[in-house]
Amino acid sequence: MGKGVLTFTDRGIYCPAGDFYIDPWRPVDRAVITHAHADHARPGHARYLATPGTAPVMRHRLGEIALETQAYGETRTIGDAHVSFHPAGHVPGSAQVRVEVGGEVWVVSGDYKTEADGLSEPFEPVRAHAFITECTFGLPVFRWRSEAALAAEINRWWASARADGRPAMLGAYALGKAQRLLTMLDGTIGPILTHGAIENTNAVLRASGLALPDTIRVTPETKAKDHSGALVLATPSALGSTWAGRFPRASKAFASGWMAVRGIRRRRAADKGFVISDHADWAGLNAAIAATGAERVFVTHGYTAQFRRWLEAEGYDAEIVETEFDGEALDSPAEDET
Asked: Which fold has domain 7-141+279-336?
C-alpha cells in the first residue's frame, strides 16, 4: 500500500492527488461535504461538492455558495483522484466519501448510522483499504433499540402527558433527529407543533421532496390552550429556555444517544430521556468497519482512545485522527439553528 490517499492537516482531511478537502474546518478552495450539519459543512470555502439531498440544507444554512452536486454512486475525477458518494444513513442526503488513487481506496465515513430509519437513505458498506470512521458512541454500553420500540415508547409518553392535561415537549436537533422523530409520532394523539428552526428545516426538506407529517410552527402568538394535547418539537437549547415557558406544565423529554448515560438527563432540564441517535452504536460501528474489509482504520470524533485499543485488539492497524467534528454534542447551538 502506498503512503496514503488522504492526509490529515490542520484544515481538514486532505487529498493531495485531487487537491481537495473532505469536511474541512478551515476555509479551503475545494471542499467535499458529507452532510449539512454545521460541524461538517462550514462557511468560507471557495467551492463545495455534495449530494443533491445535502445541497438544499447547505444553501439554507450557508446562503449563496458555489455548490455542485453529485448523485450517490457516480464517480467524478478530480485531478488524479476518483471520488464518489455513498449513503451514510445519518440524515437525509448524508454520504460517505470514497476516494481512489492509483488503485488504492480510502473511505471517509462522515457521520453514519447502520440501522435504517425510513427517512435517510440506508447505509451502504463500501469496500476500502483504509476507513476513516467516527466513533461518537464507541463503547459497548451504547446499543440502540429498534425504531418500532422507540416509537412506541415516545407515543406512550405523549399520550400519558395528554391524559394528564399537559403538553409534551421533546428536544431534538433541527436537521435529521427532528424529522426522524416526526416520522415516528402518532398524529392521532394530538397536533404537532415545531420550533421555528425545526420548521425552517422541515420546509427545506419538504421542498426537496421529503414527505413529512403536518406540523404547526410556534410563533409569539401561539398559546398552549389553543393546542390541547400537543407535542412540541423544540431545539435542545430551547428546551430549558424562556421560549418553552409558553407551554406551562409541559412534560419535557430529550432525544439523544447520550440518554444512555446515567445522570445526563438531569442536566438537560428534562423529565425523561429517549435513547435515540443518528450515529452508529457499538454494534453498528463494528459491523460497518468489518464490512469495508479495511486493514487500516482511522478513528475521529468520539471515544477515540478506547475504540482504537479495541480495534487493535481485533487485529486492525488503528490510529486516532484529531478533528474539529462534534459528533452528537449535548450542547450545540449551531445545530439548533440548522
From this structure: Metallo-beta-lactamase; Chain A (3.60.15)
